[in-house]
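# step 3/5: fold
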Amino acid sequence: MKKYINTGNKDTRSGFGAALTELGRTNPKVVALCADLTGSLKMDEFAKENPERFFQCGIAEANMIGAAAGLALSGYIPFAGSFANFLTSRVYDQVRQSICYSNNNVKLAASHAGITLGEDGATHQTMEDIGLMRMLPEMVVINPCDYNQTKAATIAAANYFGPVYLRFGRPSVPNFTPENQKLEIGKAIKLSEGLDVTIIATGHLVWEAIQAALVLEAEGFSVELLNIHTIKPLDEKAILKSVSKTGALVCAEEHLIAGGMGEAVSGFLARVKPTPMEFIAVNDKFGQSGKPAELMEAYGLDRVHIISAVKKVCSRKCK
């Protein structure tokens, strides 16, 4: 297992903000809209440098989606930003009808996703957003793991024609992927080769999976680890190749089991290669207020639970 170095904790929303600022300087077609959360989504610099291309829509998310759709139809590349909870369930009709049904070139910039929003509690946290978005035809769903990858994902989204849901978060997390990387939508990244078990992780759980794999390998397990930054379209070829070799799988995500990456993977494998599998995800619960790390532990979304799941699925494989 290669040792991945944390170059310093950063919040992934800042990776989005940095990329949006860069896009503002290089692509005159990029515009941004926000639902009264400019600072929270790190859109300040873009707004300052491009006042004629920034639209503060206020707490009127449905109107923001309509405006973004109109801008896209006029040839622009709009990034519409809000908290993930408000950018999915609150405006699902508008996203479905005005963006996906028309395959409209709108990018949804969803910050403060998952349970790691922390102290704001269940009303602002969302662990069902991936499911909502991946069910929509035409929608691409990207969930990067750190600052550098979020920056790369934002640039990739701008270069892709069609609806994109880009998911990122508020807390500072380890920044360990390469700077100035190129992200290929729909292409998994293999972080380690292994023979005994495959771990598939996305978002904040990738770093936890890396730490779990180091412990497991010290105990004699051969772990193959995939970073699935794109949940839709899913890299089915990479997943099938890996589980065909290892014969066991653990999926790790900061989301509900229902509708999440794990269900997408299990649905695919059920059709082509049924495989013993365990889920690191939240089982049919809302979040609650608390510090992000405490919540991740309480809801079973940390390296300790990944290690336990690997041992459990490996024991099932041997039966």
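# step 4/5: annotate
DSSP finds twelve helices and 14 strands in the chain.
# step 5/5: archive (pending)
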